[in-house]
Amino acid sequence: MKALALKALAPGTLRAYSAAWGDWQEYMASSGRGKSWQDAILEFVWLWHKRGRSKAAMSSALAGISYFSRLEGLIDPTKSFILTRALRGWAKEQLRFSDDRRPIDIGLLKDLVTAVSGIALGDYEINLFSLAFVLAFFGALRIGELVAKSKRSTETGIMAGDVVIKRDMMLVKIQRSKMDQLGKGKWISVPAHPESSICPVKLAEIYCQNRPSGGRQWLVHRDLIPLSRFQFTSVLKKCLIALDLPLEQYGTHSFRIGAVTCAAAAGSSGEEIKRLGRWKSDAYKGYIRGDKLR
Questions:
Q1: Cα(227)–Cα(290) distance, rounded to whole angstroms?
Q2: Torsion sign across C-alpha atoms 197, 201, 203, 205
Q3: Is 124 left (phi over 0), alpha (psi -120 to 50) or beta?
Q4: What is the phi/psi pair of residue 251, to 5°?
Q5: Residues 38-46: contacts with CB under 8 Å, at least 24 apart
Q6: What are phi and psi of 39, to 5 degrees?
Q7: Residue 268 φ then ψ, to 5°
Q8: What pLDDT, on the 0 to 100 scale, is given for residue 23?
Q9: pLDDT tens-place string over residues 102-142
Q10: The pLDDT value given to residue 98
């Protein structure tokens, strides 16, 4: 039964959970010996904090410790009140001092699309990357939801047949996301924009007119090889260099951060922003960069 329970985890998650469980077992066999579960887990977390590890990495490790503890019929040491509050404080601390990623706003999105025309080769590629940038912003998409993990990957990104284009919007199905590990999928609505250069509907219409038939993913090159994370990142960096912007302050997640920041600046409610980014919690608050718009 344990083997079946482990198969419920994605391969990457299983590796991360197993590594965390190994670290916890090693700690308990040495420094944690003789201590209560609560004292031991708090000291374990504090050691990670002092070593400069991220709160996200710690949360993943605790999820692994929790999973294996329950799997082995042991006490789950990760659910104490003081631990959950300490993790919340850790997250706020990192947002104040560590997260320097800047948002991409409408103005910068226009500049990026303009810069693509001097970097991508041919009208098809220009349209492909422009569409990818615009969708990343208006759909508040994570890079793994948008494009393939690699040129050989067939399981990530928007799939062919999962896009419906209407007059004033397009519907896109996100097959799998960080919050949907079972792959149930979720349809999102991406609205049209009055400026045709950054209008996702207009760019998608042009793309569909020229896209070759076939291929599993929707965003593909002429030869049906999917647009990959590496290619998306590479062209984004070249565009930032052309615009004389610091590479260390922008990344693929800047589109999602920008979507949330712009929505907040426009007066959207917390619930509206949560729907935009498909959050179930208030995690969106950590994405708002009111003081970092270009």
A1: 32
A2: negative
A3: alpha
A4: -155, -175
A5: 38/77, 38/80, 38/82, 38/83, 40/77, 41/65, 41/77, 41/78, 41/80, 41/83, 42/80, 42/82, 42/83, 42/86, 45/83, 45/86, 45/87
A6: -65, -40
A7: -65, 145
A8: 86
A9: 899 999 999 999 999 999 999 999 999 999 999 999 999 99
A10: 45
Strand ranges across the sheet with 186-191: 163-165, 169-174, 186-191
The pair of structure tokens assigned to 267 is 């007066």
Would you state the structure tokens that stand for residue 265, as one six-digit string?
């600046």
% of the chain exceeding 70 in pLDDT? 89
Measured CA distances, 155 to 158, 164, 176 (Å): 9, 20, 9
Cα 53 to Cα 101: distance, rounded to the nearest angstrom: 18
The single residue listed with the structure tokens 């993913």 is 217
Strand partners, 191: 169
Token reading at 67: 């999973």
Q: Considering the chain, what is the average pLDDT of its residues?
A: 86
The three-class DSSP label of residue 220 is strand
Residue 179 has a CB neighbour count (10 Å cut-off) of 14
3 state SS of 7: helix
With bands split at pLDDT 50, 70 and 90, how would you rate the model's confidence at 294?
Answer: very low
Distance of alpha carbon 116 from alpha carbon 239, whole angstroms: 6
For the chain, how many residues are written? Answer: 294
Bigger pLDDT: 264 or 51? 264
Closest CA to 86 of 63, 53, 59: 59
| Residue in 162, 168, 172, 207 with CA at minimum distance from that of residue 191 | 168
Q: Which residue reads 């659910």 in tokens? A: 79
pLDDT higher than 50, residue 26? yes
CB 286 within 8 A of CB 95: yes
- Residue 133 and residue 255 in contact, taking contact as beta carbons nearer than 8 Å: yes
Structure token pair of residue 159:
């799939």
